[in-house]
Amino acid sequence: MSAPTARGGRPREERVDAAILSATRELLVEGGYAGLTVGAVAARAGIGKAAIYRRYETKQEMVFAAAVHGLDLESPPDLGSLRAELEWLTEVIAATLSGPAVAGALGGLLADMSDDAVVSRMRETFVAHQRANVTAVLDRAVARGELTSRPDAAVVHAMLLGPVFAWLFVLREPGDVRGFAPTLARMAAAALSA
Amino acid sequence: MSAPTARGGRPREERVDAAILSATRELLVEGGYAGLTVGAVAARAGIGKAAIYRRYETKQEMVFAAAVHGLDLESPPDLGSLRAELEWLTEVIAATLSGPAVAGALGGLLADMSDDAVVSRMRETFVAHQRANVTAVLDRAVARGELTSRPDAAVVHAMLLGPVFAWLFVLREPGDVRGFAPTLARMAAAALSA
Amino acid sequence: MSAPTARGGRPREERVDAAILSATRELLVEGGYAGLTVGAVAARAGIGKAAIYRRYETKQEMVFAAAVHGLDLESPPDLGSLRAELEWLTEVIAATLSGPAVAGALGGLLADMSDDAVVSRMRETFVAHQRANVTAVLDRAVARGELTSRPDAAVVHAMLLGPVFAWLFVLREPGDVRGFAPTLARMAAAALSA
Amino acid sequence: MSAPTARGGRPREERVDAAILSATRELLVEGGYAGLTVGAVAARAGIGKAAIYRRYETKQEMVFAAAVHGLDLESPPDLGSLRAELEWLTEVIAATLSGPAVAGALGGLLADMSDDAVVSRMRETFVAHQRANVTAVLDRAVARGELTSRPDAAVVHAMLLGPVFAWLFVLREPGDVRGFAPTLARMAAAALSA
DNA sequence: GTGTAACCGAGACGGTACGTCCTGTCTTGCC
DNA sequence: GGCAAGACAGGACGTACCGTCTCGGTTACAC
Asked: What is the full DSSP assignment across B67-124?
């Protein structure tokens, strides 16, 4: 979809790609996923709806691309201790999820997707990289001798991502999510070390 | 809404209340939040749409009432140890969230709500009771001497609810969520004891 | 309907009858037939909707009763000439049709009725009496020698009623309908005499 | 409404315009104005409701367009005498009003309209042309010397249209309206000549 | 007097239509 | 062939109204 063979004809304008993503992010901040309309994105971007559907098959794909695009691409640095690196991971996750566009989009994306291809893509893009980072951190901790055996990365990932997710989307504490990260990392480190 | 003073006039029929909730739950299971129609609920319940809108201002309120109604009302029994009780809590949370109606509804509800009254109601109903249960468990652990000081119940709640939530709605591992609960509870107990 | 056998039980309150008709007429003036609601009539009259439907089977019957009630019951006096009496008839018709409640109701009544009982009742009540008056006037003109044979009363009635009706409901000239009556009567007299 | 400036974009399809009008006329014949549903028109026409509301602001406008469209566009031929031409006019009016779609629509249209723009448009379209025809006929009669002065065309129009209108919508005589036209025209000619 | 039957205001009930909105596709004419 | 504009089919949404029914209570006539 995003890369149809594109043999001949006029090339797509990058300006349009950028305008779509940027307008989507704006409207996501202003009105959340609900209240975001493909027509409104087109109008805000000063383009036609067809230019959107030429790039994304559905509204969900567009929002996913806009919200997730370019997120969380760094790998965790070696900070010397499991706990410090877990804290780094948690903070990156919290920063990613609490960005205004992501916050507006994530709930909505979960809604419109049942079990189809989009959710798979999302898992691959959004989840796989984070899990790789978790794996790297755990491997380093084993190498350092902080852990005797490497726990399941998926479980550890859920333990870091989950509370942040719940905090933002269900609990919605008025307090800053960032302050939550160190506490969470400390508890996770303790749990793993035990 | 659900309880207008109602001085005179024909009283509302409980049969209708029940039929709405039950039809909503059925359709939630069959087609998820997306794909659930107010008209379809009315048709399935054998009532008119107006009877629904007399009770709930929006589709979201109806779904919320149907999905959350009567959930998780038991209090945690004294099982003798913090870990056992955390495990009980986690299993209740997992059972609640993975029930078919709730699973179909929760994502969708998060979507259509920005920050308005519905999300507050949801927090009050859905979250408050679980948090009270967490508090009770922690208090008992302090009384037993398992913990020296009572940690923040909100944080502990997030640590239990969050991973389950993430597992179900983001990670969507094919594996059973139930198997996840004991691991999670064990790690939480270790984290708290440290 | 209006007079069910009424064996036992509490008798109907005349206050309610009057309140219904009066509220209907008020709302007819304020908003026309469209925009008149049975619920609004009940509210304005300070009664329940059931009290209305106990008296009238449909909204149309109620409006008909309210608009037509007590209209046009006088018989045409002997004014000495056909033309004078035709003028009297035309003025009565114009006065009847241009009353505010009737004006608001008639179009609407015509709308909701296809060919059923209500239109028959309306014809009987509203039309029959006027036609009897036309017949009386024509008979007197024959007796006076102004006409050699009595024309069809239905045709003459249509020639008097019709232009007034069209003037009010289709043409809607801003000018006063009353000024139209003498001209119409004069032309009708000339047509009949020829 | 029917002609927005429409600079760019896909032009409206004539097929859709025609399908709307044709489906409306069919349903008007089948069930009258009451019993005609915008949804049913859309379904019968094989189009979406939005395509209707893009063209007509309300159901009334649509029905008006369908019932009145293309009616009565001929001008009265010179038939040599006032009476013959009046008869022609009356027959055209009767034919117009007694057409099945118009008969189903007119009463209903009168109902839903109070005094707003729709009734004005209707007057302009439906009435203005007929009145112009009346004027032409009267002018020819003056030129022929049949009339000494030209009477008010509005009054004459009311005298022709009105009885037909009343006959069809109020009196509803079972007899054929067509037979009514010559009598009416003869009487009108006599009245004008006097 | 005390039934009993029909009344009363209030308002919920099933049903149906309205007019608006949105999605994803298609069709113009211009570049 | 991409692009802006916008029409298309389809269908859900939330509102409004109709005519019926139910509640708790009142009022007259008959026994």
From this structure: HHTT-S-PPPP--SSHHHHHHHHHHHHHHHHHSHHHHHHHHHHHHH-SSSHHHHHHII
Residues 23-42 of chain A within 7 A of strand F, judged by CB, are 42
The domain of C31 spans 14-59
C40 in Cβ contact with C53 (< 8 Å) = no
Number of C-beta neighbours around residue C136 at 10 A:
16
For residue A173, pLDDT over 70 is answered with no
Check residue C72 and give left, alpha or beta (phi > 0: left; psi -120 to 50: alpha): left
Mutate to test the interface with B, among A59, A171, A178, A183 (most CBs of B within 10 A): A171
Residue A8, judged by CB atoms within 10 A of its CB (0-12, 13-18, 19+), counts as exposed
C88 and C182: one domain? yes
| Domain shared by A87 and A183, yes or no | yes
The answer for residues whose C-beta is within 8 angstroms of residue B148's C-beta and 6 or more apart is: B142
In a domain, D1, yes or no: no
D28 and D79 in a single domain? The answer is no
Domain for residue A148, yes or no? yes
Pick from B155, B178, B164, B186: nearest CA to B82: B186
B55 strand F contact, CB < 7 Å: no
At B130-182, the pLDDT tens digits run: 899 999 999 999 999 999 999 989 889 999 999 988 888 777 666 677 778 88
Could you tell me if D88 and D148 lie in one domain?
Answer: yes
Pick the residue from chain B with its C-alpha nearest to A123: B171
Whether B100 and B179 map to the same domain: the answer is yes
Interface contact A161-B164, CB threshold 8 A: no
pLDDT at D101: 86
CATH number at B113 reads 1.10.357
Contact between the CB of D11 and strand E at under 7 Å: yes
Residues D77 and D146 in one domain: yes
Q: Do A57 and A1 touch, CB atoms closer than 8 A?
A: yes
| Whether residues D155 and D117 fall in one domain | yes
Residue A144: pLDDT above 50?
yes
Predicted pLDDT at B126: 76
How many other C-beta atoms lie within 10 A of the C-beta of residue D163? 32
Q: Which nucleotide is nearest to D39 (CA to C1')?
A: E17
